[in-house]
Amino acid sequence: LMGYVGFANLPNQVHRKSVRKGFQFTAMVVGESGLGKSTLINTLFNTELYQPKEVLPPSAERPKTVAIESISADIEENGVRLRLTVVDTPGFGDFVNNEESWKPIVEDIESRFDSYLEQENRVNRQKIVDNRVHACLYFIQPTGHSLRPIDIEFMRRLHTKVNLIPIIAKADTMTDEEIINFKDRILNDIRHHNIHIFQLPTYENEDEEALTEQEEIARKIPFAIVGSNQLVHTPDGRQVRGRAYPWGVIEVDNEDHCDFVKLRQMLIRTSMEELREHTTAVLYENYRSEKLLGMGV
Ligand code: GDP
Ligand code: MG
Which ligand 1 atom minimizes the distance to the CA of 139? Predict the structure, then answer.
């Protein structure tokens, strides 16, 4: 495993001020129950993001998520502080009627906007805590077909409030070819339904290397993800985080096996600042002006 996260070496240095003050970054996971949302959070936190003093036993599984809950970790690297929070949401699909299962999630996102707005309106605005959701990972069932009506409904409810990042869950259940075709269909559906997903900027960056990295990440969207904290043995004798099958081992941290590494790179390194900026300048700003209009201001 790599020894550091990399946010201290962010290629884009527009954020010097936030570097000094420390970052607050919040990501949320959304999707049907059982798709591996809680597992992905563990997978993210158990690597560079968070080095627990006690390593979790391999059998440790998270209980079913029944309420919106968040997990935070303070990470410091080369003198740069990051408070990373991941918000876990209960999955839909457990109830006969899932019609409004997006509602508590949208309300949670809005209440975070409200809290920010309230702090901005205070006389003393020195210590604003930014708990807004900067990225929302939307988990898509690995059906190989296309987006389901409930996915479209969820994404359309969410896309004006958060940076949506679509993810194909449990990608180890699909072949490489199936994944490629599925990605195409998902992107077509997203276009067809006018859903706005987060776009990596490809201009702005004069740094050739950073630009290439961003393009490589952008090509992977929607990310095909495998989550696991279990250590398994590969045929060539390595011990890796992954999932073992009779036909072989799928490695979480191997870029030839899934897009987990690219997703993490995007969240923590290449696009963290962009995700924060878009949240502030577009998503929050829209929410704020609508709210003020609603109040007749
Ligand atoms: P959640 O309801 O979305 O939070 O899903 P969980 O994280 O609780 O996972 C549900 C089940 O799926 C558990 O048994 C996990 O071990 C399993 N699981 C999680 N991620 C993956 C994955 O990437 N691939 C496969 N095959 N199973 C997974
Ligand atoms: Mg869960």
Answer: 3
